[in-house]
C-alpha cells in the first residue's frame, strides 16, 4: 500500500509546508522518498528499530552514529488498517520538532487512507465497466458477469431497463457524474459506467415502473441542474439479462432518429418510427417501386409530413 509514488507525494506536501526534511521508509527500512534525493534507497537503521518495536524512536545529535543512515530527528511508525506499513522520519532537533511528529504521522496516515479509498473506487468502477461491456455483447458470458457482480457485491434483478446518456463537452469528471447517478439509484440497484468518452450506460435493476419513472426524472433533473449539454434515451422494461444488448441498440436508435432538440427520449414513444427505420432499405425500395403510382406520388410530401408528426395530422394544416 505504501508505494514510492504515494511516499513521494507525502514527502513533497509535508516537507514544503513544514520546511523540514521528511523521509519515508518501507517495511524493510529502506528510504523510498526523501526531501534529500541523495538518501533514497539507503537503509535507515532507526526505521528498522521502529519496525521491530512498533514504537517511536528519537535520535539526538550524539546518537546519530549509532543508527546507520540516520540523522537527528524523530521516527514514527505509519499505521494502516492496524498494521505498520512503513516509517516516517522528520529531521531536526528532537526538542523543536517533537510536537510536529504526531501531526505529520496523522497527515501521512490520512493520505494513505485517502489514496487507498480512491484506488478501491477506481477498481470497482473498472469492474462495473467490464460487466457492462460483457452485457452489451450479442452472446454475453453469464459466468463472467456473475463473477464480476460477486466481486463488487451487486446482484442484478429483473425487471431491467437501459438508460443511455450522450454528453457534449463538459468539465465535470466521469467519477462525479457516476457518483451522482449511483446516489439517485441507491446501493446495488443497477450499474453505471462510461462506454466511451461522452456516453454513459445505466442499467436499472429491480425497479417497478413507477420507481423507474421516478429515478429517470431525478437523473434528468440532476443533469439539468449541473447545466450539462446532454440527451437521454431509455428503453422499455425487459425481464431477461440477455436483452441488454438489444435495449442498448434501441436507445442508440432513439437518439439517432429523434429530433436533436429532444433531451428526454422514450424508445417506447418512438417505437413505430423505429420499426420502420429498421426495415431493410433494399426491401423498402422494391416495395415502394411496386406500389407507388402517380396518385400516391402526388401525396408524397403530405405523407412525409404525416410521418414526421408521429402519424398525427398537423394542426396548422387544417
From TrEMBL:
Species this chain originates from: Peribacillus butanolivorans
One Pfam family per UniProt: GGDEF_2
Domain CdaR GGDEF-like residues, every copy: 144-257
Membrane spanning residue stretches: none
Putative sugar diacid recognition domain residues: 2-135
Descriptive protein name: Transcriptional regulator
Amino acid at each position: 500500500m505504501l508505494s514510492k509514488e504515494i511516499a513521494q507525494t507525502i514527502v513533497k506536501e509535508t516537507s514544503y509546508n513544514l520546511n523540514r526534511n521528511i523521509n519515508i521508509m518501507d517495511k524493510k527500512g529502506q528510504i523510498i522518498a526523501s526531501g534529500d534525493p541523495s538518501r533514497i534507497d539507503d537503509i535507515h537503521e532507526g526505521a528498522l528499530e521502529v519496525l521491530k518495536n512498533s514504537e517511536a524512536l528519537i535520535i539526538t545529535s550524539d546518537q546519530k552514529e549509532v543508527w546507520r543512515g540516520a540523522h537527528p530527528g524523530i521516527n514514527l511508525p505509519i499505521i494502516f488498517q492496524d498494521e505498520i506499513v512503513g516509517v516516517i522520519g522528520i529531521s531536526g532537533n528532537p526538542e523543536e520538532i517533537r510536537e510536529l511528529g504526531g501531526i505529520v504521522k496523522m497527515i501521512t496516515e490520512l493520505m494513505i487512507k485517502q489514496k487507498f479509498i480512491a484506488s478501491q473506487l477506481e477498481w470497482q468502477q473498472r469492474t462495473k465497466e467490464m460487466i457492462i461491456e460483457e452485457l452489451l455483447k450479442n452472446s454475453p458470458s453469464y459466468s463472467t458477469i456473475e463473477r464480476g457482480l460477486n466481486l463488487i457485491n451487486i446482484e442484478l434483478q429483473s425487471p431491467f431497463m437501459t438508460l443511455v446518456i450522450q454528453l457534449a463537452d463538459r468539465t465535470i469528471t466521469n467519477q462525479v457524474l457516476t457518483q451522482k447517478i449511483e446516489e439517485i439509484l441507491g446501493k446495488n440497484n443497477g450499474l453505471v459506467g462510461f462506454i466511451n468518452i461522452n456516453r454513459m450506460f445505466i442499467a436499472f435493476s429491480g425497479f417497478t415502473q413507477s420507481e423507474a419513472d421516478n429515478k429517470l426524472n431525478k437523473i434528468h433533473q440532476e443533469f439539468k441542474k449541473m447545466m450539462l449539454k446532454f440527451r437521454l434515451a431509455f428503453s422499455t422494461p425487459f425481464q431477461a439479462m440477455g436483452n441488454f444488448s438489444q435495449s442498448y441498440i434501441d436507445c442508440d436508435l432513439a437518439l439517432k432518429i429523434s429530433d436533436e432538440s429532444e433531451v428526454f427520449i422514450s424508445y417506447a414513444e418512438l417505437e413505430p418510427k423505429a420499426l420502420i427505420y429498421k426495415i431493410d432499405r433494399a426491401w423498402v425500395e422494391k416495395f415502394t417501386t411496386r406500389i407507388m403510382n402517380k396518385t400516391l406520388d402526388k401525396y408524397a410530401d403530405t405523407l412525409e409530413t404525416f410521418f414526421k408528426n408521429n402519424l398525427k395530422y398537423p394542426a396548422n394544416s387544417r
